[in-house]
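User: I'm putting together a teaching handout on how multi-component assemblies are represented. Below are the sequence lines for each component of a complex, exactly as they appear in our records. Could you produce the 3D structure of the whole assembly as structure tokens, so the students can see both representations side by side? Please keep the chain order the same as the input.
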Amino acid sequence: MSLTLTAADWLALLTHFMSLSLLAIGGAITTAPDMHRYLVDERHWLSDGQFTSSIALAQAAPGPNVLFVALLGWNVGMNAGGGMGAGIAAWAYALLGASITMVGIMLPSTTLTFAAARWGHQNRELRLVRAFKQGMAPIVIALLIATGWILAASHGSPVQHWPLWFVTAVSALLVWRTRLHLLWLLGAGGVLGWLGWV
Amino acid sequence: MSLPPSTAPSTHSARPESLRDLFWSFTWLALQGFGGVLAVVQRELVEKKQWLTHEEFVEDWAVAQILPGPNVVNLSLMIGDRYFGLRGALVALAGMLALPMLIVLALAAVFAGISDMPGVQGALRGMGAVAAGLITATGLKLVAALKKNVMGTPVCWALAAITFIAIALLRVPLAWLLLGVGGLACAWAYRQLGRARALETEE
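Assistant: Of course. Below is the structure of the complete assembly, with chains in the same order as your input.
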């Protein structure tokens, strides 16, 4: 996949991620549906496969899951630079992309957190603070479940690709109900996929 | 410029010795967290290092969760701030992100070289399906937190259902949902909190 990005496009990428940053209540992953809509459906900067594998890779790797955002930027840059085969230029673009998406997603939210956490800690009994916490709770929770649904749906319809949906359902059930280490599940998913069973 | 910490660190807990200690503690913590860092944060910072009591942890986590941004990153920022002010917040943030980001990009670079192999494609597809399950389960686990919600269970379920349908099925942009449904929910919660308070004073 190869494309051309103008300076205005890079700026648009930065501002879009900055605008998502302040909406990322419950984690950057809750804005993944909107990133998908923007990067894949609207701008066509990423393929569906690149989007999903970025999230899968960040989940499989150590560290906060927000790093999937760095991978999205990395892949946009890689596409803009002409792909892995294009050599050093593509790597530079990939690094630029990763920096832009990470700065975009982190800067507004961390600035706000720094200020608001101090204020909120000192005013945690205020009715306004409590109303915000209580009101947002069911929405944040449903967003997580919706994100899981969208990731599963990017593989195809439940009827046609039932083994993948089955794997998703079983792993959700195991994580929900047991203390099984997540690495075992990701490993098992990888092996099943490698063998071509799902 | 150094701002005063938001609360005095509790005297009964241990504390990070230095900014260097803070950086490596958070790096080590992040590197242990596959799929989700929260469980590791609790075990390392509360049980092993005892920088926070259990109560302090729960309180901070609630705030980290409602603010935008990655929860564990927000939490590290708040803890760093508490001990070393702004410098501490930045160092904790760097500890959480710097080395893990290098690792994940290196993995992506290695992966790109072998991504055309059908086995690798399959493995990623399988892991993606599991990842979808992990995120779903995180949401399902948190449903228990709605039991004590002031809006009441039926309203909570209705809000959750509207959110799911709007985002997962209709693919409505997130901003519209948060401003519209989120705003209504907060207003409703504000009203309910007022009523609960009025009832308390009557009794």
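A couple of points students might notice: The mean pLDDT of chain B is 83. DSSP finds seven helices and no strands in chain B.
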